[in-house]
Automatic annotation (TrEMBL):
Chain ranges passing through the membrane: 43-62, 68-87, 116-141, 147-167
Entry keyword Membrane: yes
Keywords recorded for this protein, A-Z: Membrane, Transmembrane, Transmembrane helix
Protein name: Uncharacterized protein
Keyword Membrane carried by entry: yes
Length: 184
């Protein structure tokens, strides 16, 4: 019995990767400080973009249709920023962590990163579709595509990059979660 236990213990140690808890804790701390900075900057930029939409509606819009579009779009950036901020803020805890909790934080970060980019892809795609529809409506009403076509083309690039990043992260998620799980 004792011999079997020693064999089992050796196999367990050979098959279980060692985790440098100090290094893992530093990685998580660095990750959380980056997330805080990102969350606050997104919140500020979302607010600035929403204010810009309102200012554009009040001072730069040339027709009632443009004013309505700007005013309808103005809550989207700050709303998305608030959602992303609340998602990140849930993980802000100051405590000592066990190895399991540190690995859970890393696992949750990977899942939240994919969720964030999926939501980004949806919002950016929806905004692009609104711009595309606006371009068509403005062309029908005024016969000019000048300002709207450029915005639609530029945002098409943003949509492409966002969708690419989301698909890239989604594809790598399973492997990243398995790597984290292998450390337990």
């Amino acid at each position: 019995m004792n011999d079997n236990f020693e064999k089992w213990q050796q196999q367990y140690h050979q098959n279980t990767p060692s985790v440098d808890v100090g290094k893992l804790a530093k990685q998580v701390a660095k990750l959380q400080s980056k997330e805080r900075l990102k969350a606050w900057s997104e919140l500020v930029f979302g607010l600035v973009i929403s204010v810009f939409c309102v200012v554009s509606a009040l001072y730069f819009a040339q027709s009632a249709t443009e004013k309505v579009i700007y005013l309808c779009l103005s809550p989207a950036p700050v709303g998305f920023a608030l959602w992303a901020f609340s998602l990140t803020k849930k993980r802000w805890r100051q405590a000592s962590y066990s190895t399991r909790e540190l690995l859970d934080i890393k696992r949750q970060h990977e899942i939240d990163k994919v969720r964030y980019w999926r939501m980004s892809a949806l919002v950016v795609s929806a905004l692009w579709l609104v711009l595309l529809c606006t371009s068509v409506v403005m062309f029908v009403l005024t016969g000019s595509l000048q300002p709207w076509l450029g915005l639609t083309a530029i945002n098409a690039i943003v949509v492409t990059i966002t969708l690419y990043r989301y698909l890239q992260l989604q594809k790598a998620l399973t492997a990243r979660l398995q790597d984290i799980e292998s450390l337990t």
